[in-house]
Automatic annotation (TrEMBL):
Keywords: DNA-binding, Transcription, Transcription regulation. The keyword Cell cycle does not apply. Gene3D superfamilies: 3.40.190.290, Winged helix-like DNA-binding domain superfamily/Winged helix DNA-binding domain (1.10.10.10). This is HTH-type transcriptional regulator DmlR. CDD domains: PBP2_CrgA_like. PANTHER family: HTH-TYPE TRANSCRIPTIONAL ACTIVATOR TTDR-RELATED, HTH-TYPE TRANSCRIPTIONAL REGULATOR. Signal peptide: none annotated. Belongs to the LysR transcriptional regulatory family. It comes from the Bacteria.
Length: 300
């Protein structure tokens, strides 16, 4: 029995927590997939999976084996890709994580274009505004905006995203127009729950970074929600440019302190260091990095 099939069966069962789902993905019967995993465990002399009538979970040995075998499977897939010359005709699944708002507004159109070019590639995208573990969740890559804290991951820059401070004309009429970033201390501001310091806003004043302590009754963990709240006249928001571009153009929001913007955030694709990228993932990275519509906001 092929060891690669055993490893692949185990990895699919582990990632999907289901023998049935793994069997469907392999095009084999659940009984045969179960035999593959059992034979692998017998060959190793350890139990890799805990099985009950309702659930499947990894043992400690299984978690270690999964972490080490997935790069081998990726490398084997890449070997086959190259032999078959699949640069011209890519196939297989790419597992992606992306922020909800940016993913819906900017990433999805780019993925649609990529899908048209490569009709045999499947794109499994999970949208979330929390920072997911790429390795633990079996992702090929994650798109992130902002400071990159995880040094254990490789980074491919895709573009840059400015942060825009803005308010609605209604709010400014009622509360007054702040003449300087320091004046924000006396205004109602929307706090970003994703930030490590949500009450500290930074500005470029005379070429120097200046911090302003802000406060407010509203705390949001989704930038699009902050933008919508600001457009309703509730408070001043600081949002990624993609969330407020349409509202700024329509006049529902007005940008404040455009001349004091700090350096834009990086929009990047992150992927595991110890995993060899398959041809399909490399092709997607090149596509995203070369798409001018993904991050058109940084024109300063």
């Amino acid at each position: 029995m092929d060891k690669i099939d055993r490893m692949r069966a185990f990895a699919l069962v582990a990632r999907n927590a289901s023998f049935t789902e793994a069997a469907q993905r392999m095009g084999r019967s659940a009984r045969l997939v179960s035999k593959y995993v059992a034979d692998l465990e017998n060959a190793l002399g350890v139990q890799l999976l805990n099985r009950t009538t309702r659930s499947v979970s990894l043992t400690d040995a299984g978690a270690t084996y999964l972490m080490l075998c997935e790069p081998l499977l990726d490398g084997f897939d890449e070997l086959e890709d190259r032999v078959r010359n699949e640069q011209a005709s890519l196939r297989g699944v790419i597992h992606i994580s992306a922020p909800t708002g940016f993913g819906a507004l900017r990433l999805v159109p780019s993925l649609a274009n990529f899908g048209k070019k490569h009709p045999q590639v499947e794109l499994d995208v999970k949208f979330s505004d929390r920072r997911v573990s790429i390795v633990e969740e079996g992702l090929d890559l994650a798109v992130r905006i902002g400071p990159l804290r995880d040094s254990s991951l490789k980074v491919r820059q895709l573009g840059r995203m400015p942060l825009v401070v803005c308010a609605s004309p209604t709010y400014l009429e009622q509360a007054g127009y702040p003449s300087h970033p320091r004046a924000l201390a006396t205004h109602e501001c929307i706090l970003d729950g994703n930030m490590t310091e949500p009450t500290v806003w930074r500005f470029n004043v005379g070429g120097q970074e200046e911090t302003v302590q802000v406060n407010g009754r509203f705390r949001m963990n989704a930038p699009a929600a902050s933008a919508r709240l600001a457009a309703q006249g509730a408070a001043i928001a600081r949002c990624p440019a993609y969330t407020v571009a349409d509202a700024l153009q329509s006049g529902d929001l007005v940008e404040l302190f455009a001349e004091h913007r700090m350096s834009p955030y990086v929009v990047a694709a992150l992927f595991p260091q110890n995993r060899r990228l398959t041809a399909r993932v490399r092709a997607l990275l090149e596509h995203l990095a070369g798409d001018p519509e993904l991050c058109p906001d940084d024109k300063r």
